[in-house]
Amino acid sequence: MAAPTAPRPAVTDEAHAEQHAGFVRYGLFERVLHWFVALNFIYLLLSGFALAYPRMAWLYPLLGGGQTARVAHPIVGVVLTVGVLVMLVLWMGQSTFSRRDVEWAKKLPTYAKTGHTDLDTGKYNAGQKGYFWAMILLTVGLLVTGIPLWFPDLLDSSGVLRAMRLVHHVLFLAFLAAFIIHVYLSSVAFPGTMSAMTTGRVSRAWAARHHPRWFREREAAQRAAGEPIATPDGEDVGRRSDDSR
Ligand code: HEM
Prior knowledge:
- By secondary structure, the chain is mainly α.
- 64% of the residues lie in helices and 2% in strands.
- It has ten helices and two strands, in the order H-E-H-H-H-H-H-H-H-E-H-H.
- The radius of gyration is 23 Å and the shape is elongated.
């Protein structure tokens, strides 16, 4: 006969969801904003290619036609800037750099090779924070260099206009490179990440492996709310790092 087990604390619906579906990483507004910005970005990327490279003119029919793309490109650029500025307001508090980030940057080669560092990473690692700030700066840079191209009569120097076009192009290529890395890391490289931006949740194992300090903070918040803490059977929550950092 099985030994009697100790009575378990009541499991609320929310606690059950937390245990089985992991932690909430992004709220609905954050996710809608992210995909709104991403869609705008993709339109800008494709229309930018079509406008910059005549060989890419085959993209025009996908973008509503050549004339539409030409008119829409700068307007979508302004819309993207507004979305990115809202992201700035929402996420800048979590994206400020600290001394820990210097440690992470030193371990970048290890991260690139293994996809992991043994550091006690919080909600975002330094690479993610860097991506966030790069997006802000590149968006502002593209807007500033894009306005003179939109209204060429504002500048009477064709030399300055040419320089703006060149800088706009270089920033666009930098944005594209950062975007490709972001999409790769969020999908192929780290399975389990995409659900953060679809359902808004990540598994406990994912959180413990990639963001151990954030994992403990979320667990502590659950504990403070009086919810039972349990690791689902068989789930590998990864190695926890030293708390004393
Ligand atoms: C369409 C392709 C995209 C995909 C598949 C994608 C996917 C994701 C995912 C899964 C996350 C959550 C990562 C985490 O919480 O650890 C994320 C976060 C984020 N995304 Fe995207 N994203 C895309 C496009 C963009 C674009 C175009 C921008 C900005 C212009 C952007 C900006 C951000 C920022 C700032 C974060 C938070 C910091 C970070 O995790 O790097 N994303 N994205």
